[in-house]
Structures are given as structure tokens and as C-alpha cells.
Amino acid sequence: MKRRSRIPLQLKVAVALFLIVMMPLGVAAWFYTDTGKAAANYGATEAADRIGVLERSFEAYHGMVNTTKQLHVEVANRLANRPDLLALDPEGPLVNVVDLFGFDRERTLHTVIDEPEQAGLSGITILHADGSVFVAAERPLAGPEWRAKVVEIPLGTNGATLQLTFEVSATVQKDLEALKQALDASRALMQAKSALPWSYTAAFLVLIGIAGLGAAAFGIIASTLLTGRIAALVSTARRVSEGRHDARVELRGRDEMAELGSAFNSMLDNLDQARLQVEYLQRMGVWQDVARRLAHEIKNPLTPIQLAVQQCVSAYKGDDPRFKKLLVDTGEIVEEEIAALRRLVDTFRTLGALPKVEPSPLVLAELIEELKLDPTMAASLTVVPPKKPVTVRADKLLLKRVLANLVENGIHAGEEAGNTGKVVVGWTSDGDTVRITIDDHGKGVTEADREKIFEPYVTTKTTGTGLGLAIARKIAIEHGGELAIAPGRAPTGGARFVVSLPLRGAEASLA
Fold first, then answer.
1. To 5 degrees, how large is the angle CA 234–CA 236–CA 240?
2. At the N or C end, where does the chain have fewer CB atoms within 10 A?
3. Same structural domain for residues 43 and 186?
4. What is the pLDDT confidence band of residue 100, given thresholds at 50, 70 and 90?
5. Do residues 407 and 474 share a domain?
6. Looking at the structure, do residues 184 and 265 belong to the same domain, yes or no?
7. Greater confidence, 426 or 468?
8. Domain finish residue from 352, 369, 396
9. In a domain, 128, yes or no
10. 346-405: pLDDT as tens digits
């Protein structure tokens, strides 16, 4: 089936991030332009209204300054024609007369300064024709916000000068300059365009473009990292679906994707183990069917054969000792082989008629202690229980059969190795699983035998049919657990068999 073309996730994420960033920025750009127009129009209107006020203020202020200047000139002209001041003309004919009568020149000037109609006048100085001071009088300025302004006018006709000092505002020039600047700024604002300058708009659009490209680049980089890890998961899943059950994914890091990869690998491990268990149970099912058939086919002719041989041996009445001995030996051999066949038939019957698992709550310590009731195991079995008791849901009869078989194998392995036949049984619970370990003092299990030791009719002992471990593993799997050999040797130096059972019971059984 041809797969439809799909849009890469990198492109989707990049476009999505680009749109997410550009949408508010685009709206902001529209508002920016529109607001700029509104602000410019509003500013132009306000500036137009303000210009009239500023122009009138500037004209009034300027007129006030000019009026003040004219007033000072008028005051100077008026004072220059006053008889009392003309009498003080140092170059005039009356100066000697004034001195003759003893007039106080400075007092006369102070009197003029203090007159109400001379408001703003703070000093009077009369100069000779050569510019030297003849007489002067003044009063201090009213404050730092005032400054002195001097006005000079001829006094009489002989070259003397009347110098008047007036108080004027010290900030007049600055105020006029500030009014002029405000007026110029308002005129510039009124003449501005109805929108903000294009340079501002261009700068904002460039900023929007850079932000959009940055978002797209970030989206491509982030999505590439993400899709690369997803692609690794997809590739591993495809390899597993193609039959490569050992395929696993490697995702580094400590984020959610790494946890997903770890969970994915754990799932594949569980699936692989379940697949192997199902295949094992299928093989065991075939062996069980064969065992039932063989037990039926072998059992039926055994009795007639045995009776026929016994009859032949008892029917001979001759006196040939050699023939009679041969006949008796043949009968004994047949009897032994028939007995061996009967044991094999019993084993076949056992394999072919394993009962179904019926789990119930079971205290492991009590079950394992019951193994010591067998005299052959009591002296060789050492139990190492955990601090806390462990209860599982299991079939007592079948689980006891598994443990008895493993303990018996351990005893035989130690004896065949020339060591003690002691066997150590311990167990621990970890989460939802209990692990029962059976350690012996034998030679251990070679790597070559590890792969096939649980197959039916495979055994490393000098005696036995090779069905014990196969039956034990089948029972463990049907309990939802497993029977395996530990990778390394047991602390006792021999082999360590591990029975894993779920604490939650047999509802997870593959049977």
C-alpha cells in the first residue's frame, strides 16, 4: 500500500511558531501605524491651537519689553530737562551757584530716585564731558531676579551726560528665547506628516521580520531535535515489526522523551520475554500432546510383553544349564527394561496431565518449611527468609513441586561434584515481584547448557529424564512468572536458579 505524502513535523512546528509570533506583531504593526497617524493628527491640531496662543504671548511679551525701553527713554528725557538736575550740570553756569548755597548733590539725586513716578529707577549718575563721575546716587536692586539696565542721555548743552540705571527682569531674554523655541516646535509639529516617519515604520517592520525568522529557526531546530528522537522510536518499532526482536532505542537525556524511550525499551523487553514464554509454552504443549500419546501407546503392550517373557522362562523344562541361564538372564533384562519403560510412561503421564494453576494466598515461609518434611531434604536444606513475611497468590501443590524439584536437583548437583549436597533457599520481594533463589554447591551450568537446560528431555545429570526443569519452568510461567538461571555463580559456588513470581497473583498468567 502506497503511503500518502505527509507534511514534515519540522515544517508544521516552524510555520506554527512563525504564525504565533507574527500574528501579535502584525496586529501591533497595524496599531502602530494607525496610532501614529492618530497621534500625529492630534498633535497637529493641538499645535495649531497652541501656536495662536504662543504668538500672541510672544508679541505681548515683546511689546512689553519695547514699551519698557520706550518708558526708560521717556523717563530719561524728562529727567534730563528737570531744573534741579540741570542745575547739577558740571559744565553749566549754575553749578557754582549751587555750591555757593551749599546744596547736597547726592541728596538731590536720592530724592529723585525715591519719587513714586520714577518706578524702576535705581541709580542716577552725572558724568563730566570727559566721562568722569561728577555725582552719583543709587539704591540696591530688589533681588537676584532683577538686573541693572543703563540709559544715557545728554544733560544740558555743554557735554555732560545723565546716566540712569533701571531695574529690569533678569530672565527677560531667556523667557523670550523659550517662547520662541516653543513657537518653532509647535509650528514644526503642525507641519509634520499625518503618519510617523518611514524610518520608524521600517525599523519596526525589520524587527518584526527578525522576530519571525528567529521563531521559525527556533521551531526548525526544536522540531528537528524532537522529530529525530521520535524517528528513532519509529525506526525501532519498525525493526521489531520486521522480526528483529533485539532492537532497542537509545535516547539520551533526562526529559520526557528519554523516559518514553526507557519505557519503550522496557515494553519491548517485556514483549520479548512474553514472546519467548509463549513459544516455550507452545513447545511444551506439543511435548505434552506427544507425551500423552506415547504414554498411551507404550503402556498398552508392556504387560503382554512381560507376561510372554515370564511364560517363556517358566515353560522351559530342559536340562541344558547354559540355555536355561541365558533364558533367565533374558527374562531379567526384559523385566528391568519394562520397569524403566513403566517409569518413562509415568513421566510421560505426569507431563501430559499437569493440573491447571489454581492460585490462592500463600505464605512462602510456611511452604518452604514444608519441604523439610521430606527426610531426603531436611538435612540438606538451609532456609534464609527475609525480615518481613511475603505472601503470594500461587497454587500450593504446583509451586511446592517446582521448589522440591529445584532443591532435589541442587542436592544431586553438589553430590555429583564431590561437594556437600547442601542447598540454600532465600527470597526477597521487590515492588510487585518476589524472587526465590535456590543455590547449590555443584559445578554450575555451562554457557552451552544455559540455552537448552529447560527444554524437555535435556539433562546434565547422570540419571533422570530431563523433564523436571521443563515442568518447573512451565509452572512458573503459568503463574505469571519465570524460572531462569542467574548470570553468575551463586555465593555457594554452584548454580543459582531464580523463580520470579508476581505478588499480584496469577491473573497475569500466560496459560
1. 115
2. N
3. yes
4. very low
5. yes
6. no
7. 426
8. 352
9. no
10. 666 665 556 788 888 989 999 999 998 888 888 899 999 998 888 898 999 899 989 999
DSSP code string of 18-72: HHHHHHHHHHHHHHHHHHHHHHHHHHHHHHHHHHHHHHHHHHHHHHHHHHHHHHH
At residue 298, what are phi and psi to the nearest 5 degrees?
-80, -35
Rounded Cα gap, residues 271 and 279, in angstroms: 12
End-to-end Cα spacing for the chain: 37
Tens digit of each residue's pLDDT (9 = 90 or more) over 425-435? 999 988 788 99
Residue 294 in any domain: the answer is: yes
CATH number for 278:
1.10.287
Q: What are the grid coordinates assigned to 286, written together? A: 506439543
Please check whether residue 373 lies inside any domain of the structure: yes
Rounded to the nearest integer, the mean pLDDT of the chain is: 77
Q: Are residues 340 and 388 in the same domain?
A: no
431 phi-psi bin (left φ>0, alpha ψ -120 to 50, beta other): left
- Looking at the 3D structure of the chain, how many domains does it have? 3
- 153 domain residue, yes or no: no
Contact 441, 422 (CB under 8 A): yes
C-alpha cell of 155? 544733560
Beta bridge partners of 136: 125
- 226 — alpha (psi -120 to 50), left (phi > 0) or beta? alpha
CATH number of the domain enclosing 413: 3.30.565.10
Distance, CA of 65 to chain centre: 74
Looking at the structure, tell me whether residues 446 and 366 fall in a common domain. yes
Q: What is the pLDDT of residue 34?
A: 62
Within this chain, do residues 342 and 369 fall inside the same structural domain, yes or no? no
Question: pLDDT tens across 192-225, in order?
Answer: 544 456 676 677 777 777 877 777 777 777 767 7
Quote the domain boundaries for residue 300. 256-352
- Interhelix angle for 256-315 vs 468-478, to 10°? 140
C-alpha to C-alpha distance for 35 and 196, rounded to whole angstroms: 9
Does residue 230 carry a pLDDT above 70? yes
Residue 435's DSSP bridge partners are 428, 500
Q: Report the distance separating Cα 78 and Cα 274, nearest Å.
A: 127
For residues 345 and 462, membership in a common domain is answered with no
pLDDT given for residue 85 in this prediction: 78
Spatial neighbors of 246 by CB under 8 A, at least 6 apart, are 272
From 325, 352, 379, give the residue that closes a domain. Answer: 352
| Nearest residue to 212 via CA among 33, 26, 27, 31 | 26
Q: Which residues of 50-86 are buried (b: 16+ CB within 10 A; e: fewer)?
A: bbeebeeebeeeeeebeebeeebeebbeebbeeeebb
Asked if 416 and 466 sit in the same domain, the reply is: yes
Position 219: which residue type? G
